[in-house]
Structures are given as structure tokens and as C-alpha cells.
Amino acid sequence: MKNTDRNYEGSDGMYDGLRRDAVRVGVSSCLLGNSVRFDGGHKRSRFITDDLAQHFEFVRYCPELAIGMGVPRQPIRLTGDAGNPQVVGVKNPEFNVTQPLQDYSKKAALQMQGLDGFIFKKDSPSCGMARVKVYNEAGMPERAGTGVFAHAVMTGNPLLPVEEEGRLNDPDLRDNFVMRVYVHARWRRLLAGTVTASRLLDFHTSHKYLLLAHSEVAYRALGALLADLSTGSTAEIADRYIKQLMQALSKPASRKRHSNVLLHLLGYLKRSLDAPLRRDLASTIDAYRNGIYPLVVPVRLLQHQFSAHPNPYVSKQVYLDPHPADLKLRNLV
């Protein structure tokens, strides 16, 4: 198994051939500790600045500053139709920045092809990803909106992994988001060259068990899509492939599905390990499935065994090593 120890033991500025500056993630500027909020404050996220910053190159955005609003500034909010809200001043509804904010957001969204993810500030009328307050004519709020900037980014970049900083407190969502960022980065690296049938199949092969952990339906559908690449344009098939893959990966995998994949991987060791050790590993996987252990326990045991008993097919699998180990993302899922 090539480079197994490097991958399994963490990162020193490079992960899976992707240097930190090759994995670029957009982020609401206030989350990096920049004092750009309406009151002159910030909303620094330690997970973002202390942990993710070791592996991602962040590209900061503050759409309100970008359209000329200063610091401090009048706070704004969404009003009217949640599907097409107006953005007005909280104290002065005549202060309307809807058009300039929409114009900037659409333009910025078209220039994000080099990003692999985006982390938004929750509840923001510009950057909130979901459940942003929208005020009706009576001044009553309903959590039914999306920030104008966030909406433009997500609409203009449907494959881009996105998340809010508040939701990153959930271990499953955090693990899932970072995993998708790295999948997107590997795909972007693939697109940097010529997308041949061989390279597309290699990409799919390395992501098979990761895909199976999220959706068996998508696993079979994408296998069928790539079964005969001579029937159409490779570029068109690749486009269909990545859309379905990112959609399948968007929902965190369950313990049941993870356990299914872990048992599949254990099957590759049946000729290398004696029966008692195989039973012990199977028991550990079952304990994980029942919530006794976090995912890192059976994964690390399998990694150890595959280091001692290399398998060329398993060595290609992203599933066992989807993101840098020092982030400890699988310690709580």
C-alpha cells in the first residue's frame, strides 16, 4: 500500500497530494475574526480559524462591505416575500440595498470556480444559508429566508459544498462537509487535466466505498453510468457523474451504512487474518453500529491491518482516509 502511513498519520501541509493552498474555501469574513459586522464586531469561529485553517486556504467575503456599507453601519434585514425579499434598514426601511447586494452577489458567484466549499454566517440577511428571518408588513418575523449573497452562491455553484458555521458544531455535519470539500478538490484537480475515460474510472474507483456509505442507490446508478463510456461524450458523462455524486454525498452517512462498508472492507482481509482476529474486528464494527464506539475506532483498526496486509484495491479507497486525521472528525461520529 503506497503512502499509507502518511495518509493515516495525518497531514503536514499536504493531504492526498492536495497542498493547503490547493483547497480553497470561501468564508464569511466575520467568522475569521475580522471586525466587519454592522456593530464593528466579529463572530470568530475557533474551529474555522484554529483547525480548518491548517488545511484550507480561506477566501474571505463580506458582501455588505463590498457594496460600500461601512463599519459600523445601519443593520439590515429581509422583508416581504421570502422567495424574493427586499433588504432594508432595520431602523430606516427607506434604506434599501436590495439591488446592489443582488448585483454584487451574482457577480461574485460567477467568479468562484476556484473554490471547493463555502462556510456562511448563520442568520445573516446577506450570508445566512437557511431559516433567515423575513419580516412581514406587520413587522413580524418568519424563519423562511435565505441571505441574498448565500442564495446567489448556492444557485450559481450547485456542486459547491456549503455549510453554516453553527451547523458545523454538529459532528456528523462537520465530518460530512469537510469530506465533500476534499471530494470537490480532487474533482477540480481532475478537471485541470484532460478528462479521459480512464481518469474518470480511476476517480470513481477510489470513491466507491465512500459513495456506498451514503447511498446504495447512487452507488449502483453511477456504476451503471460508467459501465460503457464509449456510448457518449466523456465530458457529458463526467458532468452527469459529478452532479449525482455530490448530491449523494450531501447527506451524512448513517451508522448502519458505515457498518456495511466496514464489513465489506473486512472481507478483503479474510485470507490474511485468522478467524479469532476477524471475529474481533467484526465485533468492533458491530459495537460501532450500536453506538458504543465512534467511527474512528473500527476505521483505525482496519487501517492498521491493511498497513500490515496491503491490498491494491483498498489502498485506492478514499473512504478509509477522507480528510486529515488531525482534524479528529471521526472521533465523535
Textual characterization of the structure:
- The chain is an alpha/beta fold and 333 residues long.
- The protein folds into 3 domains: 166 residues, no CATH class; 63 residues, no CATH class; 77 residues, no CATH class.
- Helix content is 44%, strand content 11%.
- It has 13 helices and 10 strands.
- Helix 7 runs antiparallel to helix 8 and helix 11 packs antiparallel against helix 12.
- The radius of gyration is 22 Å and the shape is elongated.
- It starts with a helix and ends in an 18-residue tail after the last helix.
- The N terminus is likely disordered.
What keyword list fits this structure?
3 domains, 333 residues, disordered N terminus, four-stranded mixed β-sheet, four-stranded parallel β-sheet, alpha/beta, 44% helix
Percent of residues in beta strands?
A: 5-15%
Given the helix and strand composition, which structural class is it? alpha/beta
Averaged pLDDT, please?
Answer: 94
Please estimate the helix content. 40-55%
Question: Main beta sheet: strand number and arrangement?
Answer: 4 strands, parallel
Number of helices: 13
Give the N-to-C terminal Cα separation: 26 Å
Shape: elongated
Oligomer: single chain
Would you list the SSEs in sequence order as H and E? HEEEHEHEEHEEEHEHHHHHHHH
The overall number of domains is: 3
Unreliable residue stretches: 1-13
How would you summarize this macromolecular structure in one to three sentences?
With 333 residues, this protein is of the alpha/beta class. The chain contains 13 helices and ten strands.
